[in-house]
Amino acid sequence: MSLNILSGGAAQGLVGSLTPAFKAQTGFDIAGEFGAVGAMADKLRKGTPADIVILTAALLAKLAQEKLVAATSIADVGLVETALAVRTGDPQAAVRDAADLREVLLASDAIFVPDIKASTAGIHVANVLQQLGIAVEVAARLRIFPNGAMAMRELAASEAPRPIGCTQSTEIISTKGVTLSGSLPPGCELATMYTAGITTAAAHPQQAQVMIDLLIGAGQHEQRERAGFISGRG
């Protein structure tokens, strides 16, 4: 038996690290998909079977309004920052302010990002490029992938002389071959609250609750931190 998950890519590393404990408690495996949060919400709306969803707080609130997620089950997992990534072995990108970020992005010949219309980090990157006044200049250098995990795998394999990546820190940490190179600077930063909830059509609501308890439990604080989650709101 499997628990079906639809989740933002931000939570993939954390769910993976909790899977052995979940299986030990329930006997269930984990099945499902991790990707851009907008795409995952749309899959739920179109009837993809899911017991639990892990998405941004704003999206989960909307799905609860649409009666697709049980509002009483929704729990905060933690904040995830949007951050910069470099290939492991490449120099770190030192970014203290917006001017530094502008310089780093202009100096890069390939910028690896998740979906700029459906993913939290991708939408934010597109807005930051506009804010910095370089959206048109770097448009041809954008390497856009369906989700952050895929964008980071492609960054790791890139043969471009000076590539950089920008997605959620959790996706950078969980990808081999890339290194977290710091959060986005003040004025350009983004920290997104991720929440988990049980779907109203859940086939296994009890097991879904066990997974939520693991995701938010005090005993898993270290695992959340290791995966890149910052505890609490703010």
General description of the model:
- Helices cover 40% and strands 27% of the residues.
- The chain has 234 residues and is an alpha/beta fold.
- Strands 1, 2, 3, 4, 5, 6, 7, 8, 9 and 10 form a ten-stranded mixed sheet that branches.
- Helix 1 (12-26) links the parallel strand 1 (2-8) and strand 2.
- Helix 1 packs antiparallel against helix 10.
- The longest helix is centred in the first third of the chain and has 15 residues, at 12-26.
- It is elongated and about 50 Å long.
- The termini are far apart.
Strand tally, please? 10
The run of helices and strands is EHEHEHEHEHHEHEHEEHHE
Computed CA radius of gyration, to the nearest angstrom = 18 Å
Distance between the termini: 38 Å
Shape annotation: elongated
Q: Count of DSSP helices?
A: 10
Major β-sheet annotation: 10 strands, mixed
Give the mean pLDDT: 95
Strand content: 25-35%
The proportion of residues forming helix, as a percent range, comes to: 25-40%
Low-confidence stretches at least 5 residues in length (pLDDT < 50)? none
Structural class by secondary-structure content:
alpha/beta
In terms of topology, how is this protein built?
Blueprint (H helix, E strand, L loop, with lengths): L1 E7 L3 H15 L2 E7 L1 H9 L6 E5 H9 L9 E13 L10 H10 L2 E5 L5 H12 L3 H4 L3 E4 L2 H10 L5 E6 H5 L4 E6 L7 E8 L6 H12 L4 H7 L1 E2 L4
In short:
By secondary structure, this protein is of the alpha/beta class. The chain has ten helices and ten strands.
